[in-house]
Each structure stands twice: as structure tokens, then as C-alpha cells.
Amino acid sequence: MQNVNFIKHLKGIFLQFSKDNRLNPTHISLYIALFQLWNNNRFLDEFHINREEVMRFSKIGSKSTYHKCIKELSYWKYIIYYPSHNPYKGSKIKMFKFETSIGQALVHNNANIETSSGQALVSINKHIQTNRNNKNVTKLDQPINEKEVIDFFKKENWPKIEAQKFYNHYQGIGWKVGGKTKIVNWQATAKNWMIKAEEMSVRAQSRTNQKSVSQNMDNLKTSKNKNYNEPL
């Protein structure tokens, strides 16, 4: 069991949230739900969780979103997630202390986060910087948030509404092509979306032009030199 100062911990974690651009509201909501369960378990070093309960507390309605966010929180060292892969045995969570002090703040680039075991964990800011400098760990299976998609479409000279349609479509099906195959590079998928949108626009314009021509034609017009002696 850890000795956690509720107020200092929340102050420290929200300070860290403000400096981490990878997070979206769902990550934060999920973390707060886990923190509340940690509190209910009297700040044990590790505790079991129930997925349905955590989703209810965090107001997350999608299982795929839940699993994505909890794995990212673990990868980014906000928590450690031990999935059980057993429906009759809950997964386990290990939480870290994010308390700040007058002498030293956890968010300092050279600071370490102290765990209950006394071991030092590389600070999250340093971990973030390492990831930014290492292009090989950049994940492109899905964007960070809607704004990233809008910025990408804007760079490709596409309107905001098209970016929102793309984001909402794939967000709704868990960033999978056809709802089955996981996307490897969302930017490439977005470019394919743009190509298809252009093709659809060209087809629609072609149909409009054909309809206009058809309406302007006099289908009853006959030649002035028609020979009525010829059989029909």
C-alpha cells in the first residue's frame, strides 16, 4: 500500500497532462476513473479492475476505444496494465505517484518518477522526447485526434468538412478498413479517401451534364427532307 496525497497527486498528474500533446479527453477520463478505483482500493500497489465498471466510470462506450486508451496510458508510463485475457479474472493495474514537492517537480526533464519499490522510472517527459526523436516508433495506425486530421486535410487543400467526415467515419468503425482490417497508415487511407471523393465528384458532375443535355434535346425533331414513302 502506498502513502498517496490525494491533492498533490492530482495536481502533479494534471500538470503532466497539460504538457503531453498525445493525450485526448478519453485518456484523461480513463485515468481519472482508474485513479478513483485506486483510491477505493486504498492505494494498493496493484489492484484488479472490471472493464465494464471502468468504462462506466470513464463514460467510454466503445470497447476498442477503451482497450486502445488503456494500452497507450500503459505504454506512455502513466500506469502499468496487466491484461488477464480471462473473462473470469479481472486485469490488474499498477499506478505511479505523481506528487510534486517544493524541492523538485516530477515534470522536470531530468527528474525521475519514484515508484513504491524504490526503483527509478524514466520521467515521462524524457520518454516523450525520446519517442519524438525516434521516427521508428511513430504510430500511424490512427491520428491523435480530429485536429490532426483537419490539419492534414488542410495541407492537402481539402475542406474541413471532408476531414471531419473522414475522422467520424473511421472513428466509428475503430480505424479499420471495411470494419475488419486494421489501418496501418491513416494518412495513406486519408489520401485514398480524397481520391475516391474526387472520383465521386467527377461522376456526379458527369451525370448532371448528361441530364442537362437530355433535357435540352428536342426528341421529336425530324429531318425536313424526310421521305414519307419509306417504310417505318
Automatic annotation (TrEMBL):
Chain intervals for the UniProt region annotation (Disordered): 204-232
The protein's name: Transcriptional regulator
Origin species: Polaribacter batillariae
